[in-house]
Structures are given as C-alpha cells and as structure tokens.
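Lab meeting prep.
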Amino acid sequence: MDLSALNLRGAVDLSALKQRPAPPAGAGGGGPAAPGAAGGGPDHNAAAPLRVDVTEANFQELVDLSAQVPVVVALWAAYSPGSAQLVDVLEQIVDSYEGRLVLGAADIEAFPQLAQAFQVQAVPTAVALVKGQPVPLFQGGAEEQQVRSLFDELLKVAAANGVTGRLGAGGPGSAEPEAPPLPPLHQKAFDAIEAGDYAGAAAAYRQALIEMPADAEAKAGLAQVELMGRLQALSAAETEAVRGRAAEEPDNLEAQLAVADLDVAGGHVEDGLGRIVTFIGRNFGPERETARVRLLELFDVVGTSDERVAKARQNLARVLF
C-alpha cells in the first residue's frame, strides 16, 4: 500500500520509549542473529551494515536515524517459530535496497515496552519508522514480492515527508542525500506537507496534473494529501463518534467514508475498501457515485498494484454490474 504518510500523524506514542534511560552494559537482547551481525547500536561491522538489533540503549538513535532513511522494525520473539526466518528474509530484502532502508530487529521479550508502544498483537510483526513516527507494515509472514511492494510504497511515503537519505558503505550514521531534484511542483507539495499544509500540497499536485495529466506520482500524491487533510480535521472524540455513527447507520455516506479513511490510514486496508464497496452495493444515485469516486481515490493511496486493491476492484465490478 502507499502506507500513506497518514500514519505520520503519530497514532502511536513513542515518547516514553525515547526518554527511557539506557540500561546497564550487557542489558537488552540481541535479535535472531544473522551471520556477522552485531547488536548494541547502529555502528556495527560491514558484514551486516543495514541490520541493527534494537535495544533500549540504541532505540533513540534509530528514531533519530529515521529522519534520514526509513527504519523497518521487525518485532520478534524466541517462542515464535517464524520470527527468525522473517528477520532473515527482511534483512536480505533491506540489503537489496542499497542503503535506502535500515532493518531493526527487536526482541519483544527483552524490550516489552516497544511491543506495547506499537500495540503489537502477535509476532512476528513489521512496522516502520519515518521521521520518528510509526507506519504499520504487516503482521505474521509475508511473501517477498509483497514485502518489496510495501517497501517501495514506504519509500514514497518517506520521500513525501522529506526522508530521502541513503546510507553509505559505513552503515547507519553515514547517510547521504539522494541526488535527483524533484520537479518544482512536487517539491512545493512536499514542502507544504512538511509544514502540515495539506491544502497547499493538494493545490500543488492539482497544478502538476493540469500541466501533465499523466503524472501518476502527482495523482497518487494528491489522493494521499487529501486523505491526510481529512484525517487532520478529525479530533479523537470525533473519531469515536463517527465510528459509532457508521455502525448504527450503514447507509450514512459521510460516516462510512470517514471510517474507511480511518481504516486505510490505520493499515486496515481491506476493511476500509470493503466498507465503501458494501455501501455502493446497497445504495444508488448521487451517493453511490460519490462513494465510487472516493474508492478510486483510496485505490491511488493504497497503490493500484496492491493485491487488496485488485480484490476490491473485482468486488466493485460485482456490485456495479
């Protein structure tokens, strides 16, 4: 999915973890060790330059590093048979991105506060950090192609938030900015996102589409910032209220679209897309068309090549025809 920089609104509070004092030397756990991987902090040997074993001592360093490159955090536990295998697979995939991503392996038995902060319900679970904010990825196992697709979208989200670094051969701590400049209107949009001005970002993307209607990145960016703007307008109290209203009023278009936004933003993509498809199947007239247009916008947010979008398209075709 496009993972939507939506999650950069900070749904998970990591502040308590960032402020925890470093434990005594020797405390904390190491991850399922890859050959040559060294734990304890971002500065480790070149045998596994993009793999870090997360501890209370180095967590803040990784949070800080996520302002330069996205940090993928694999939460694992010895009691979970699939954990070590997933960490190994993620390490190989992260290495193939040549410094654009970093992997942090976190043993939730040694660092239970991290699991609590990320609201982990099962292991293994993968999340990412971008500019210190969590972005949910997946829970349980995942196919390599699915992981690569998620990582590609993660990098788009990171770029939209000004995180475009690349680690050099020295591993974490040697990040260098990527070279190619963005098109002027895209840069204007990213600058607006940085300032929290989603309306300004949307205006820049719209202008880019006027000048180049086939600009797929501008189209996806517009869908993302419009979603971010809608979410920004919802307070915590309003979020609870709209969920209750959607449950009580299945044909309330505004409530169903709002909850679909929240679901997609929170990583519950199938629930969000399915909610709108169900609404379309029950309703006709202008409201059905409004819902269909919003669904297509969310397809752009999630990523048109995502399997969940393909499934939702099939379901949409069934209810329409």
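Slide two material, second protein:
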Amino acid sequence: MRRRGFTLIELLVVVVIIGIVIALLMPAVQFSRASAWRVQCMNNLRQIGLAANAYLAERNVFPMSSTAGAGRGVGHSWLAMILPELDQRPLFNAYNFRLENHAPANRTVVGTTISTYLCPSNPLSTAPLASGRIIRADGSAYPDGSAFARNHYAANWGGGLSAAGQDFAREKGNYRGVMMTVRLVTPRGPTFCVRPQDIRDGLSGTLLAGEKRDGQGWSVGGYGGADFDAAPAPLAADVPALRTLITGSFHSAVANFVYCDGSVRGLKPTLNPKVWYAILTRDGREPVGNDNY
C-alpha cells in the first residue's frame, strides 16, 4: 500500500492553524514578559531603597540628591553616594568625588553600567551618553570628553523647577522631599540632609525615589539627572522633552516608586493629584491611607 503524503491544501491548513495558535499565544507571552520586567523593576527600586536606608542607618540622614558648593567636585548624584550599600564598593572607591563627574579621572567609573539602575522595560538606548549631551538644570551642557552610563530612577527632592512642576511649586513650594541639594537658601531656610525625624508624614507615607524614563546618567545630580521634578501626575504621556525631568515609565499604565521605609508600590496616572502631592512632601501633615490609592 502506498503512503499518501500531504496535499498542498492540507499543508496550507496546517500552516494557518499554527499561525492562529502563535497569534493567540503571543499576547500571553508578551504579557508574561512585561509582568516579569515590572517585577524586576520593582526589585531594583527595593534594592535602591534598602541601600538608601543602610546609608541612613550609618549616618542618620538620607543622602543629598546632588553635591554642591564652591570649587570642584559638584554635581555628583545620590546614586553615586549609595554605591557601597549596593555592593559596589570597588566602583565607589575608584570614584573621585573631589573632581567633577565628567572629569577624565572619573571617565571609566561614570561610564560603567549598573544593572540595578536600569528598568528592563525601558526601550531607550542604554549606551553611555556623551557628556556634551548632558543638560544641567540651568539648561547648559556638560563639557565634552566623557560619557555617562544611563539610569532610570530618580530621587524625590519635592519641588518644581521646570514648567511641568510649576503647579506643585505653587501648591507646596520647593525642597519638600527627602533628598535635595544642601546648603541652598530657600524661603523655608537653608536646605539640609533629611533625618528620619524630619519626615513628619512618616517613612511609609513619603516617597524616596521613582522611575524616570531618562535620567541621563546615574552619576548626574540634579532634576535633569538623578532627581525628578514634581509634575501633576506620577505617570504622564511620553513626551521626549520631559523624559529627563519628570517621573514616568514604559510599563503599562503604571510607574513604580519606593517609599522611605523601603516599600515599593506602582502608581497609576489617575492617582488623585492631592494624594500625589501629599506623598511627595515630607512634612505636609496630609494623611494618606491605602484607600486613597
């Protein structure tokens, strides 16, 4: 008896069925991958929160968001300061904080990619960004000659300097967060490194840091780098001009944040602005319960 092979029609039917099965499975695969990436992102923030709290336990203050002062060695970020607490002691030891982050002596260090500072859902290039393309808070650019490894997380300094943050500034003022450039004279007095007792709204009710679509570089201090400006919502539509300034993510309708107590929560763009502003301020005495989310 001769064995009959597949006819062309039967082969086409099989191909169509396989195609349908793949089409049905793809959304599930994509959803599973997106969920895994979000979990990894939350784990990154959890590690950052633990590192910041280890820094706090040793010094009784949270790190300043950015180094400032007369002379050299300004503009280093809080993410650079917590490197030892993230098991990055050799990198920290190689970092010369007495020089600017873009100085030739720091070129290798600041160009080193740290996976904990990168969200796996972020599709933007993770290639080091040339120092001449780094934009400071005042709009000026860094000198050429170096390059900065990227970051996707930024500190809550509790203020609004850009146009996107002006509503918060009118409502709450500036320097209301938990990490900020210190020794600046403000209407509330000189800025300082924040202690636990300064966070009168409670560690569990005050944001420490959150996602940012483009932090320009983990060693870059300021709201154009490892800080974020307080926009009216935790997750705004993706606008390239705002990627370096305000919080945002490439997850589906949620951005992740770590609180001062180390807990991590995803916040939606529909969060009540009053609640959002309340958790950005350390001492506004605005009660926020779980039912407010």
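Talking points for slide two:
The longest helix spans residues 8-59.
The beta strands are 129-130, 147-148, 153-156, 185-186, 189-190, 207-211, 227-228, 255-259, 264-267.
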